[in-house]
Amino acid sequence: MDIIGFLISWITLFSIYSILSISLNLEAGYTGISNFGKAAFYGIGAFIAAVVSLLAFLTVSGLSYPLYSLETIVAMGTLSKQNPVLNIIVFLFTLALAFVISGVAGYLVSYPTLRVGPAFLGITVLSFGELLRIFLRNFQPTGGTYGLAGIPHPFAFVQDPTARDLAFMLIALTLLIAIYLFSERLVNSPYGRLMKSVREDEVASLCLGKDVPKIKAQVLFIGSGMAGIAGALLAYYMGSINPDIFVPSLTFEVWAMVIFGGSANNKGALLGAGVITFLNRASVVLNFMFQNLPVDVNYIRWMLVGLLIVATLLFKPEGLIPEDTRSSFVWSLFGEQKTVSFKERTEEVRKRVKLYVKKLISWFMMGGE
Amino acid sequence: MSVREGSVTGLIGPNGSGKTTLFNVISGFYPPDSGEVYFMGNKITGLNPNEIYNLGVIRTFQNPRLFPRLTVLENLLVAAESRGERVTSSIAKRNWVDGEAKLVKKAYEIAKSVGLEGVERNIASDVSGAHMKLIETARSLMNSPKVLLVDEPAAGISYSAAKNLFNYLIKLKEDYGITLFIIEHRIDILMDYVDYVYVLHLGKLLSQGTPEEVLSDKKVREAYIGD
């Protein structure tokens, strides 16, 4: 088995999904916006990257094939290897464009519902995502149900496929780190406190002079923009995309990451993304290794994800790494932060594990009630 | 009805007489069915609650509406205005760290003077009911109010704590020139502090005047005792 290949693909997917889960965490975990349409903004980013990069390459070479045609795919095979500078420029430009357009879409779609409760917004973006997907399935210029292929890999000029994937993985990982640091700074600032106040009580926050609809709009812009970046990365990574990748279940996979890892904690979002993308990748490998199984491993993966959510909600509803309300940045201003020694920490973990094992056993003894 | 600048005005009335509704209208939560609200000569009817707050008209809630999963200190800090509350300036710590340190100092002072000393670091949902009331009042003082609409500050706290709280409010009024408009059911405490009282009954203004005048008004006694 190709361990290196597995690790590269896992880390790349982990980076893409982590960007998604961090963006959802900003919206749902910190600000209390139930965004059930993550897949839509992810999809917008992917399609922006695909359409703009294909158009750019075709225009530069003076070709005028339709974007989805076989000629394009064949032409892109050679075009994408000729001009490394163009590859990189188009890649960076589309990332920025995906951020802006997805962000604006997130803002516009949620605008009518900013002044009402979270459920309205959730349903509105969920249905927007489905409408967009169905529209794209029937929209011929972007290939309808077949989608677009031949998306130029930013490192297509690199000969060795492993080196190419490794370079892409590093880019994705760098973006993830940048987005993670940005989010950490945002939530550990007075703005983060504002986000939490909106989550805790919108009315009280409004009453204390905060422009709640504006805060929600800003968070949605940032969150949707980040999802757009993730989508663009996915498009370049896969090389081809179609509307049916961006089904609502993808949104709920990201929700599962946030619920499992721990909402209102960016480390939790990373952990959730790590575990679930690992299951995702492992199921692909297992499916390939054991082809004579009576069931498809992919179904088992979905069952595992469901089981993870149920188990988390039963035993640790706040997630594996819960929000640390007492670690507020305010205390660090005064140097009052308490330092915990390694020994104390391991002791704490040991106690917790013991408690959960006990809980699990008693749960089974009670017949799963 | 009018509240004179720099005065302590009371608003009393039996349950359901519309006291909190009046506060909701003033602070922009409910649109009035008729009539208008003026603040220092400017019409404020139809403004959003956050705009009215930023003008300096600040209300507290009868049932404290705290941010339960934030610490007591953070509950106070949300009420203040910080430079770091803009997305762009929140990213670089040096933009807001000095202002924030000042706000924290102010919050500690206010917490101490309303009687919240020692609970600043607790999670708001963990403190006692009386403390929650105090947080609600303390929070309203964070952004240098001009008018405070205080909805039953003494409900659910002990007599001596209520006295302390009222003394503190009066002191604030004298130090910073804050106008106070207070709803209170505990008339025994309220009457020692107010200059002028309005009495509401079933949504109508029943009586007004100095505490002595109102207390000797027969209509008021009837509305309260019902005979």
Number of helices of chain A: 14
User: If strands are numbered along the chain, what order do they take across the biggest sheet of chain B?
Assistant: 4-5-6-1-7-8
Q: Supply the helix-strand structural class of chain B.
A: alpha/beta
Computed over alpha carbons, the radius of gyration of chain B is 18 Å
Short description:
Chain A is 72% helix and 0% strand. Chain A is mainly α and 369 residues long. With 227 residues, chain B is an alpha/beta fold.
Architecture blueprint of SSEs:
The complex is a heterodimer of chains A (369) and B (227).
Chain A: H1 3-30, H2 38-60, H3 70-79, H4 84-110, H5 118-137, H6 161-187, H7 190-200, H8 202-207, H9 212-238, H10 248-261, H11 266-289, H12 297-315, H13 329-333, H14 342-365
Helix pairs in contact in A: 1-6, 1-9, 1-10, 1-11, 2-4, 2-5, 2-9, 4-9, 10-11, 10-12, 11-12
Chain B: E1 8-12, H1 19-26, E2 38-39, E3 42-43, H2 49-55, E4 57-59, H3 72-79, H4 87-90, H5 97-114, H6 129-140, E5 147-151, H7 159-176, E6 179-183, H8 187-190, E7 196-201, E8 204-209, H9 211-215, H10 218-225
Parallel strand pairs in B: 1-6, 1-7, 4-5, 5-6
Antiparallel strand pairs in B: 2-3, 7-8
Helix pairs in contact in B: 3-6, 5-6
Description:
The complex is a heterodimer of chains A (369) and B (227). The longest helix of chain A is centred in the N-terminal third of the chain and has 28 residues, at 3-30. With 369 residues, chain A is mainly α. Chain A is built from 14 helices and no strands. Chain B is of the alpha/beta class. Chain B is built from 10 helices and 8 strands. Chain B has helices at residues 19-26, 49-55, 72-79, 87-90, 97-114, 129-140, 159-176, 187-190, 211-215, 218-225, and strands at 8-12, 38-39, 42-43, 57-59, 147-151, 179-183, 196-201, 204-209. In chain B, the strands form 2 sheets. In chain B, strands 4-5-6-1-7-8 form a 6-stranded mixed β-sheet, sandwiched between helices. Chain B has a two-stranded antiparallel ribbon with strand order 2-3.
